[in-house]
């Protein structure tokens, strides 16, 4: 009888060891939800909710000591850019490329003002000081 | 004694059947060798083409892709920003994307690869016992340096909308029906779309941020890609 229990234990162990999820790499929280609603029905309300969710993801990630998910800082920066708050926008674009070097080309493009929304005064991205973000 | 052996055997077999699902036919390395050759880091998700009858399918699908791709170890460019910019540039129709040289996406967004997707089917079926969402996707990850197909997926995922909650028996069944009814009434399919995407991306070789990056080539996968191309 005991052997049966051992075997069942073995079976469960195999399943658990193989199927167990590792510690999460990222905390995306309700990102997909708020983004879906914002895309589907872009209004002040859905925009604000998605914006708040981005801030929430950043604070939870920092709290848990994991990397902020790809694109979250960039999206937040883009929100500021649309509101013509360029200093904040640049700050977040810098953040994005500081944790994801793959983002550099796109972030520099956003920083330099080559993209439509907001203040378009050209800035040389190479001259923007991203240190200390 | 015999019973014990039989029991042991069946348990082991059961364990394997749970783990494997169906017969693996290939490995990641054999199926997607170019992923290992080029090792793309950044992925640009392009707005999907929607050939299904569901008007919302495009948003459901595109807003639930970044998360599974990031967990697979890739840097995904922020879809909300990139799709907004593409739209501002006059590229609001997925059909127009096909005419753009892939190198442009590297130049503009710094993307190593672009993900083209076509939603073939997005069907909801409401049955008394089980409600399901059936999603059929054709996806292609293309290199922006070599124009080659790095990863291809053509498949159908069926997601159980009753959430799988509730055990057996009549009580469980009723609970399932109630949950399914609530789910369909709320018409919020984001979690299910995400599930479908997680499953579609199951066989993708892991990217640089994943612990198993470059060591998963031998990993066995179920062959889902079309042979003749």
Written overview of the protein:
The complex is a heterodimer of chains A (133) and B (229). Chain A is mainly alpha-helical and 133 residues long. Chain A has one domain: Serine Threonine Protein Phosphatase 5, Tetratricopeptide repeat. In chain A, 62% of the residues lie in helices and 0% in strands. Chain A is built from 6 helices and no strands. The model of chain A has no long low-confidence stretch (mean pLDDT 86). Chain B is of the alpha/beta class and 229 residues long. Chain B has one domain: Rossmann fold (3-Layer(aba) Sandwich). In chain B, strands 2, 3, 4, 5, 6 and 7 form a 6-stranded mixed beta sheet that branches. Chain B is globular and about 70 Å long. The termini of chain B are far apart. Chains A and B meet through α1, α2, α4 and α6 of A and α1, α4, α5, β4 and α6 of B.
Keywords:
heterodimer; A: 133 residues; mainly alpha; Serine Threonine Protein Phosphatase 5, Tetratricopeptide repeat; 6 helices; elongated; B: 229 residues; alpha/beta; Rossmann fold; six-stranded mixed β-sheet; two-stranded antiparallel sheet; 21% strand
- Could you tell me the number of beta strands of chain B? 8
The rounded Rg of chain A comes to 21 Å
Rg from Cα of chain B:
20 Å
**End-to-end distance of chain A, in Å?**
63 Å
Q: Which class of chain A in CATH terms?
A: Mainly Alpha
Low-confidence segments of chain B, ≥5 residues, pLDDT <50? 165-169
Number of helices of chain A: 6
Number of domains of chain B: 1
Q: What class, by secondary structure content of chain A?
A: mainly alpha
CATH topology of chain A: Serine Threonine Protein Phosphatase 5, Tetratricopeptide repeat
**Dominant shape of chain A:** elongated
> What order do the helices and strands of chain B follow?
HEHHEEHHEHHHEEEHHE
What fraction, in percent, of the residue positions of chain B are helical?
40-55%
Quote the beta fraction of chain B: 15-25%
Assigned CATH superfamily of chain B: ABC-type transport auxiliary lipoprotein component
How many distinct beta strands of chain A?
A: 0
CATH architectural designation of chain A:
Alpha Horseshoe
Major pleated sheet of chain A: none
Number of domains of chain A: 1
User: How far apart are the termini of chain B?
Assistant: 54 Å
């Amino acid at each position: 009888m005991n052997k049966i229990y051992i075997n069942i234990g073995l079976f469960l162990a195999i399943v658990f060891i193989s199927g167990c999820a590792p510690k999460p790499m990222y905390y995306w929280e309700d990102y997909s939800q708020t983004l879906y609603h914002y895309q589907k029905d872009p209004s002040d309300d859905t925009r604000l909710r998605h914006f708040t969710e981005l801030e929430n993801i950043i604070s939870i990630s920092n709290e848990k000591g994991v990397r902020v998910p790809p694109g979250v800082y960039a999206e937040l920066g883009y929100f500021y850019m649309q509101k013509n708050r360029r200093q904040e926008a640049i700050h977040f674009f810098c953040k994005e490329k500081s944790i994801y070097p793959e983002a550099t080309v796109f972030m520099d493009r956003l920083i330099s003002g080559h993209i439509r929304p907001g203040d378009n005064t050209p800035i040389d991205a190479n001259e923007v000081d991203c240190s200390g973000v | 004694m015999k019973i014990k052996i039989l029991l042991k055997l069946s348990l082991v077999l059961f364990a394997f059947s749970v783990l494997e699902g169906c017969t693996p036919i290939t490995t990641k390395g054999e199926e997607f060798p170019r992923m290992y050759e080029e090792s793309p880091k950044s992925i640009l998700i392009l707005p999907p083409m929607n050939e299904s009858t569901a008007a919302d399918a495009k948003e459901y699908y595109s807003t639930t892709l970044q998360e599974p791709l990031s967990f697979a170890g890739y840097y995904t460019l922020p879809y909300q920003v990139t799709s907004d910019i593409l739209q501002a540039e006059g590229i609001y129709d997925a059909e127009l994307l096909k005419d753009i040289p892939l190198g442009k996406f590297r130049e503009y967004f710094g993307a190593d690869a672009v993900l083209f997707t076509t939603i073939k089917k997005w069907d909801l079926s409401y049955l008394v016992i089980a409600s399901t969402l059936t999603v059929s996707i054709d996806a292609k990850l293309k290199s922006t340096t070599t124009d080659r197909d790095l990863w291809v997926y053509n498949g159908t995922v069926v997601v159980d909308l009753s959430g799988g909650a509730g055990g057996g028996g009549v009580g469980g069944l009723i609970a399932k029906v109630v949950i399914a009814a609530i789910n369909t009434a709320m018409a919020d399919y984001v979690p299910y779309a995400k599930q479908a995407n997680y499953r579609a991306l199951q066989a993708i070789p892991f990217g640089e941020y994943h612990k198993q990056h470059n060591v998963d080539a031998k990993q066995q996968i179920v062959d889902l890609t079309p042979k003749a191309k």
